[in-house]
Write a structure and sequence with these properties.
alpha+beta, 24 helices
């Protein structure tokens, strides 16, 4: 009862109000419920952590099982390079997933370390014991930390095993490649006898397989076949017409160019090779896609069709390249100094070698699909290498070379000695290598000479074309440059910039298209290239730092999008919200600037986060910047902070008439670092913001444009000051542009023996009109003074009388007469002399 009584404390009217009693009860209940709520929140957090650790342990167990499966498959397919590539990719992907599992536990581990640091070390011996809650928390944190450390150790071990397995696969593939190249086959009569029997069986099997497939297609897939062929032809028609319609100036040799420019020749040679080849490849891909999509191809026919289409595209590419470089039909478009006859022979030899090499691959694929003996593939490659070697020897002995300035139809000369020896040695190697049993090496060398050589030549032409296009004033001479100049009116500088961008684009296109082709020719698989590309774009490691090009590009893209959105929002706010609200121009400028800075900062943070840059890792950079600020960046930071203060406090705004030291003019722009002030002479003065913050700044139009003008004038001292003051008052009151409230004032400031000094003080609604108003006011005062005959200056000086005695007057008069006589005497003498010297005077005796 006593405690209850204390709750109901009395006041003047009796017990406390019921509202205060309810407040006290709610406060007590909230404090009592706080521990229970904390326990309720802590329980789900602990359950979530336990679930996360259990999931991580389960994922690691699954990853271990997948690693064992990959290891078993490596042993099973140790002689199959294609399967080994796929297994290597799987091992690398598994390694990344294992590392991600370990990384996912790091935030919780850091939280545990932080909490343990907060709790501190356990009390020593003799110290008071900790509370049971703290002891229990220590045990849970230690157990959880040990569990995370165990999971991290297991993940590291699995990652090491996956890395070792990936390296082992790479070594196995290297050994397979070496064995395939350096493997020796006994070339004897038995080999050819066995091959002759195998080729007969293969021909029969191929005939039977193709016949069965065609009968099956004709009976059951006839409409699908027609549909696939129709769609493929339609795709080819669209590609061809589109290519010639869009890129006709780049891939056709116009007849009007009798002697085309070198840049034009390079451009036509490159694009007339690349674009038609890409169109042919797209047509082949579309054909295979439609045939496969309509279920026309069987599993035994699909590889033959695919390799056949690929060989056709490759041979077409070789023919287009040879035609672009050699131009057998028109010597003016030729990139090499060879004769017409030599160009025709070289084109024929190159196309023949491409056909032989393509046939070798096509026939080898047929043997592999049909399960023919390996000896048949060896014999096919044997003869293909001999034929290509013989063609190289024939190439060495033709005479295609011309000297500079010779006509294309002239007789050619032999190759230079270095090229001649190289062709002879290469041809002999391709002939003697298979004869000695190294058929694989001969086939590899022949393929590199034909395919890789063609790719390198195309790349070289592309690089020359890109360098020529990006040269100063070069793009304007091309057909595309002239068309852009005519249609869009681009100047020389703009065309040079477009040419530079075109050159860089050509370089990028060459890198993307041809580097993978070279890698494929050197034994690498598509999966290898995909893996390298993935690493290049996502996992560039510099020490312990991992850089992701994709993340950086996404971050840059998001930053640009953020800037665009910021500019749009800035214009929308200014044009729709502020303009309709009739906000002052200075306020609108401050709002626009604040929105711009906020948007740029937000876009920068989003871009950095998207790029994968941990913002917490920028603490070191911030520390370095703070150190630099302390030494060399004080003025920059001072101006930056001052600019923010100016935008926030707005002591002046854009358009204000300010006076800062010796600078006076209108504020035109307020930026973060400095403020632009335009003087009355139209000179722009850049004033640092810190100067405006720390110094005295006068603002004529701070809150409004109301201002006072002073006009000083002086009149002659002989005037009546009150009359002058009344006249000035009447003139001022009649003057347009001056305010009546506050009332204008005429002040009699000072007087002297010669002048009376007055000053007119009046107020204007817009002080910016002060100069014109003062000019009009002075003109009106002058006109009124003249009308009222108010003299501005004093009259001429008065005559002062002088008293002289009679004696002095007589003396002065005598002196004046004497001086006058002396002046007259020389004048009379000169007159007489002139008369005696007249024309009728006689000379004296």
């Amino acid at each position: 009862m006593v405690s209850l009584r204390r709750l109901f404390l009395s006041n003047e009217d009796g017990l406390l109000p019921m509202s205060r009693l309810l407040f006290v009860l709610l406060t007590v209940l909230s404090f009592a419920a706080a521990p229970a709520a904390a326990q309720t929140v802590a329980a789900p957090a602990a359950d979530a952590t336990a679930t996360q650790l259990e999931q991580a342990s389960t994922d690691l167990d699954r990853a271990g099982g997948q690693l064992n499966t990959i290891r078993d498959q490596v042993e099973r397919y140790k002689d199959d390079d294609a399967h080994l590539v796929e297994l290597k990719v799987e091992a690398e992907a598994l390694n990344r997933s294992i590392l991600s599992i370990s990384i996912a536990t790091r935030p919780r581990l850091e939280a545990i370390k932080t909490r343990q640091a907060e709790l501190g070390d356990p009390p020593g011996e003799g110290a008071p014991a900790e509370a049971a809650v703290v002891v229990e928390e220590r045990k849970k944190l230690a157990a959880e930390r040990n569990e995370i450390n165990a999971l991290t150790g297991e993940a590291e071990n699995l990652s090491i095993e996956a890395t070792k397995l990936s390296n082992r696969i790479t070594e196995m593939r290297r050994q397979l490649f070496s064995e395939a190249i350096l493997k020796r086959t006994d070339v004897n009569a038995d080999l050819f006898m066995e091959a002759s029997g195998a080729i007969t069986k293969e021909a029969q099997t191929l005939n039977r397989t193709v016949t069965a497939w065609m009968q099956f297609v004709w009976k059951f897939k006839r409409m699908q076949l027609f549909g696939a062929v129709a769609l493929s032809l339609l795709a080819a028609l669209v590609l061809l017409s589109g290519s010639y319609r869009l890129f006709a100036p780049l891939i056709t040799r116009a007849a009007r160019h009798d002697k085309p420019h070198y840049i034009t020749r390079l451009s036509v040679a490159f694009w007339s090779t690349v674009l038609p080849t890409m169109a042919a490849a797209a047509f082949a891909g579309a054909s295979y896609f439609f045939l496969d999509a309509f279920k026309v191809l069987r599993t035994d026919i699909a590889p033959i069709i695919s390799i056949g289409l690929a060989v056709v595209v490759a041979v077409y590419f070789m023919a287009q390249l040879a035609n672009a470089v050699l131009s057998p039909s028109d010597g003016h478009w030729r990139l090499m100094r060879v004769s017409d006859r030599g160009a025709q022979l070289l084109w024929l030899l190159i196309c023949s070698m491409a056909l032989v090499n393509g046939a070798d691959y096509f026939l080898g694929t047929i043997s592999e699909v049909l399960g023919s003996p390996v000896v048949l593939t060896v014999v096919k490659s044997f003869f293909a290498s001999l034929i290509i070697g013989g063609l190289l020897l024939v190439t060495a002995f033709i005479k295609p070379v011309l000297s500079k300035g010779e006509a294309p139809d002239s007789q050619g000369r032999p190759w230079p000695r270095s090229i001649f020896i190289l062709l002879i040695l290469t041809g002999l190697v391709l002939i003697f290598a298979p004869l000695l049993g190294y058929v694989g090496m001969a086939r590899f060398i022949a393929t590199q000479i034909i395919v890789t050589g063609a790719v390198i030549v195309t790349m070289y032409i592309g690089f020359l074309s890109g360098r020529a296009v990006s040269a100063p004033s070069a793009f304007a001479e091309t057909a595309v440059g002239k068309r852009l100049e005519e249609r869009f009116g681009l100047g020389q500088v703009a065309l040079d910039q477009v040419g530079l961008a075109a050159g860089l684009s050509i370089y990028l296109l060459i890198f993307i298209l041809f580097i993978p082709l070279i890698l494929l020719q050197w034994g690498f698989q598509v999966a290898d290239i995909e893996s390298w590309a993935y690493r290049f774009f996502t996992e560039i490691r510099i020490g312990s730092i991992t850089i992701s090009l994709v993340g950086i590009l996404v971050g840059i893209l998001l930053f640009v999008v953020g800037l665009v959105v910021t500019r749009w929002f800035q214009k929308w706010v200014d044009g729709n919200v502020l303009a309709r609200s009739q906000v002052d121009v200075g306020v609108r400028n401050s709002v626009r600037t604040a929105v711009s800075y906020a948007g740029v900062a937000l876009a920068g943070l989003i871009g950095l986060s998207a790029a994968g840059i941990n913002l917490s890792s920028l603490a070191v950079v911030a520390g370095a910047l703070s150190l630099g600020i302390g030494f060399g960046l004080q003025n920059i930071v001072s101006n930056f902070v001052s600019g923010l203060i100016l935008l926030a406090e707005r002591p002046f705004k854009v358009g204000d008439w300010v006076v800062a030291g010796t600078t006076e003019g209108f504020v035109r722009r307020i930026s973060v670092r400095a403020t632009e002030i335009e003087t009355f002479q139209r000179q722009t003065v850049i004033v640092p913001n810190s100067v405006l913050i720390n110094g005295q700044v006068g603002n004529w139009t701070h809150r409004n444009k109301l201002g006072r003008i002073e006009v000083a004038l002086s009149v002659h001292a002989g005037n009546d000051p009150r009359r002058v003051q009344d006249i000035l008052t009447e003139v001022v009151r009649a003057q347009q542009g001056l305010l009546r409230n506050p009332e204008p004032m005429v002040v009699f400031q000072a007087f002297s023996s010669t002048t009376l000094d007055f000053e007119i003080r009046a107020f204007l609604a817009d002080i910016l009109n002060g100069t014109s108003v003062k000019s009009e006011l002075r003109a009106a005062i002058l006109e009124r003074f003249r009308a009222e005959e108010i003299p501005l200056g004093g009259p001429a000086a008065p005559e002062v009388p002088i008293k002289i005695s009679p004696e002095g007057a007589e003396l002065i008069t005598a002196l004046l007469d004497q001086a006058t006589e002396k002046l007259r005497a020389p004048t009379t003498g000169r007159r007489r002399k002139t008369a005696n010297e007249g024309p009728d005077a006689e000379p004296a005796a």
